[in-house]
Design brief:
Strand order of the largest sheet: 11-9-12-13-15
Distance between the termini: 30 Å
Number of strands: 15
CATH topology of the largest domain: Carbamate kinase
Shape: globular
Largest sheet: 5 strands, mixed
Number of domains: 3
Radius of gyration: 22 Å
CATH architecture of the largest domain: 3-Layer(aba) Sandwich
Strand content: 15-25%
């Protein structure tokens, strides 16, 4: 976003500053200018910076995702500071991170980071927007299962596309990957040093247990191609039984158009995410076998198929704030 902001000033002859091509051109101008600011600031501290520009395609393909991770690990091992941003010169709506919060979550999961920090224009999470509600209360700690989803509403500043709501969505991804997260005020002096020293700064989101490496990729890097709505029994099985697969008998509705091998979101009857995973059947096939037992799949589809709609090895159970 800041690359676009910096570059747009150079496109003085363009009236439409919001068109896709204009935003991409502005990013092309602004990216080197933005990096120069970072390089200059790092040099004062004797540090070297490196630029990495990512698109969603760079992490949705497992092989490219691993190459990105390997590059980052080498840079960090060499003491070089990677400056990571979305490649706005080629990203388009519908296949974009949208907010750097989600991009940060993907990178943190790839690196199995010890901590992720979101710097905001607010001290952390409040029970309501403190700029609009004087009675809003600061929330110092968020535990798994806390009731906080209604705290976030509205968007951020002029250069933001999401605000606190998007930060909470990204925070959910991160803590589900076993990584704690802090939201703090970026304008507070030495805020990162204070956080790393263990000071009670900002809002701390306590992490859950970390899934295996491949499931980190499933949980963060891929965009779902469709949705499976499941019944309460299937919800309980996925949440309570470690290593449970999703069977056709528990599916009650199919949304979207997807193929076997695509990532789908699994939600309960209220639309709340329960899990996500790589599906063994197309949307048409799942619609045909939904509600049926595994032993009936061959008769319905006319050929032998997998017993599971999503096998447990390709399934990531989601935590959720209520």
């Amino acid at each position: 976003m800041w690359a676009i902001h910096l570059g747009s000033a150079s496109l003085t002859g363009r009236r439409d500053k919001d068109g896709l091509s204009i935003r991409q051109a502005a990013a092309a101008v602004g990216q080197p200018a933005l990096m120069q600011h970072y390089i200059t600031a790092l040099a004062v501290e004797g540090l070297v910076g490196a630029q990495i520009l990512l698109t969603t395609e760079d992490v949705q393909q497992r092989s490219r995702y691993l190459r990105v991770r390997n590059t980052l690990q080498v840079l960090l091992a060499e003491g070089i500071v990677p400056i990571i941003n979305e490649n706005d010169t080629v990203s388009v709506e519908g296949v974009t991170y949208g907010e750097n919060d989600r991009l940060a979550a993907v990178v943190a999961a790839a690196l199995r980071a010890d901590l992720l920090v979101f710097l905001s224009d607010q001290p952390g999470l409040f029970t309501a927007d403190p700029r609009q509600n004087a009675s809003a209360e600061f929330v110092p700690v968020v535990m798994p299962g806390d009731h906080i989803s209604h705290y976030a509403n509205g968007t951020g500043g002029a250069e933001s596309r999401g605000g606190m709501e998007k930060k909470l969505e990204a925070a959910q991804m991160v803590v589900d990957c076993g990584i704690p997260l802090v939201i703090a005020n970026g304008e507070q002096e030495n805020v990162l040093i204070q956080i790393l020293a263990g000071a009670e700064v900002g809002t701390l989101f306590v992490a859950r247990g970390a899934p295996p490496s491949r499931k980190l990729w499933l949980a963060t890097a891929l965009e779902p191609s469709g949705v499976l709505v499941i019944d309460e029994g299937a919800c309980q099985a996925l949440r309570d039984r470690d290593g449970a697969s999703l069977l056709a008998v528990g599916v009650i509705k199919v949304e979207g158009d997807f193929q076997a091998g695509d990532l789908v979101q699994v939600v309960d009857q209220h639309g709340k995410e329960v899990a996500r995973g790589l599906v063994n059947y197309s949307s048409q096939q799942v619609a045909a076998i939904q509600g049926h037992h595994s032993g009936e799949i061959e008769r319905i589809l006319g050929h032998v198929g997998d017993d599971e709609v999503i096998h447990r090895d390709n399934l990531v159970v989601s935590g959720h704030w209520e």
